[in-house]
Structures are given as C-alpha cells and as structure tokens.
Design goal:
With 354 residues, the protein is of the alpha/beta class. 55% of the residues lie in helices and 8% in strands. The chain has a five-stranded parallel sheet, sandwiched between helices. Strand 4, helix 4 and strand 5 form a beta-alpha-beta unit.
Amino acid sequence: MKCIQGAQVLLAEDNEINQQVAKEILAGGGLNVTVANDGQEAVNAVKDSYYDAILMDIQMPVMDGYEAAKTIRNWEGGMRNEGKDPIRIIAMTAHAMAGDEQKSIEAGMNDHVTKPINPDQLFATLQKWIKPVAERAAVPKSLPASEGPPVIDTPSEPDQAVPEEDELPESLPGFDLAAGLSRLMGNKRLYRKLLLDFGASYGGVANEIREALAIMDFKQTHSLVHNLKGLAGNLEATDLQAAAVEMEKLVKGQSAKTVSEKDLKKKFAELDYALEQALDAVHTLGPKVEKKIIESNRNLGESVPPELIKKATESIKTAVEMGDVMKIQSIAEELKSKSDATAPFCSNLVPLAE
C-alpha cells in the first residue's frame, strides 16, 4: 500500500456519514482526500485540480455517478489537454443490484468497489489503478502529484487511550460493532460519533419514506431506501441493512401497477421496525442532553416537516456542544413561529438551556 501513499483521491459521495467512513479509511492509508457532494461537484473538481483516482458513488443529487463519469470522459476527449492519461474512475456500487457493474463500465468507469466499503477490497482496487509514487512524480508541474487539495481527515489513532465518554459498549442490539470498528481502522471515537449522528439525523426518514409511498413515488422511495441501506452497511447496522435491501428490491424501477400493496406494507413495516430498533440502540450511547433532544425529535410525529426537524436538531446539537444557552432559546422561539406542533419539543429545550 506504500506505493500509493500521497495519491490524490476525489471522493464523490452525498451522504455525510458515508463520507466520514470513506475518509477515515482512505486517510488511514496515507491518501489525500477531497470530497464532492454530488456528481456536478465532482466534474467541476476534476476540471480544476489533478486527481489520481475518483471514487464515484452512483446515486447522488444534482448529477448521478453515471452522468458524472460520462461528462468527465467527454471533457477528456475534447477540452482536456492532450498527453494526459484518463482519470481512473472507480464506481462505488451496491453489489446486490444486478447490472450496476456493467452500467458503470458503459458510463466510462474503470472498475467498481462494493458498498458498504471493505477496506481490503478498496485498497486492492486503488493499487490496481493508481500509479506508483515514482511514476506519479512525473505529473506536469501545473498539477503535481505531491501537491493538491488538503487532506480532509487525519489517520485514525486506535492505539491511544479513548476517553470514557467516547467508549463503545461491548455490544449494541442490531449492530456488529466489531465489524464496524474494523472498517474504521479501530477509531472508537469516530464510530461512536457516526452512530450518534445517525441517531440525531434519521429519526424522520421513516416518515419521508411513508410519504413517498403514499403518493406512489417509487423513485423517491428507492432513493431514500438506497441511501439508508448504504448508511446501515457502513455502520454495520445489520438488521436495518437487511430490511433496507429487501425494501429496495421491491421498489427499484417499479410503479403502482407492478407492486403489490400487501408486499409494500409488509416490507415497509419490517424496515420501519428495524430502523426504530437501530435508533433506539444508538440513543443509549448519547449523553442526557442529546437523548432529550433526540426523544423530543422522535415525538414530533408526522405534523412537522422532516427537513425542519433535521435542521432544528442539528442546530440545537451544535449549540449544546458550544454551551450557547442563548442560541438554544433562540432556536426554540424560531421553531414555535414556524409550527405550533413544535411546542412540546420547544418546551423540552428549557431544561437543556439551564
């Protein structure tokens, strides 16, 4: 793996938790990582800077991975300076979806790795396509391999003592903690943070899926379930991942005419239950303040838009971490002005601000 250390890798991934998992793995292997949040950002980044390889997620907003790869290949064949090797593009796909690998190749990608990320497979694939350091030194001075975008994340430090508040329990219902910790190179602090981020941010996703199903929007349903599946895989939420896989199989490429309502209700109920169990499990990791915020979030129900819940939760969590009492109170007042249904939630913020 030493031969590819220092290489510049562009990570195109829209999910923040998945980004952090991938960055930890890549930075732990000595690679420099830049993040693009969607396909269009990836295309723009490639035109502005040099990268030894691109890890391209397939399902992203604005522009998906297939379209981004095609756009990059068209740019290379036209406006890009002659004499440069094509950028190595590696798709990140869910192996359960038949045909994804072939579609990636047809879009101009060189290879693929499966999600959730397997570090050994990831590095083996990168070594296959990234030039050894001696050859990378020959890159034109305008875009040297030794320079480029800053490292986004630092290598993990699994051997250092972990503070008690960053420890993980011996087990967590619905999660394979040993596998998750292995994926994150032993970084307990990061794994715990990602689990808590999941708990704080995904309390409303079941309602989003339910709303999409209510109007038979299978494209949106598939997008939400696919995202949840990849996230569950990276966090080793085994039960949730299995339920998401089954739900995705049912809704991918389907319509109201081709899907049984009975099957939909059954698979969604299984997914909803697995999600609730996973959220309940990660909530046990949080300190008292975080638990109160999350429980208040869960109790808002369907009367408050999911995007408002998510935004409020993230803002309050940041304010709590900074100890900004006035900010918490300000957020509460703003929420009340936007929706009367948030009153119980806002009332629970009062003891948090004391």
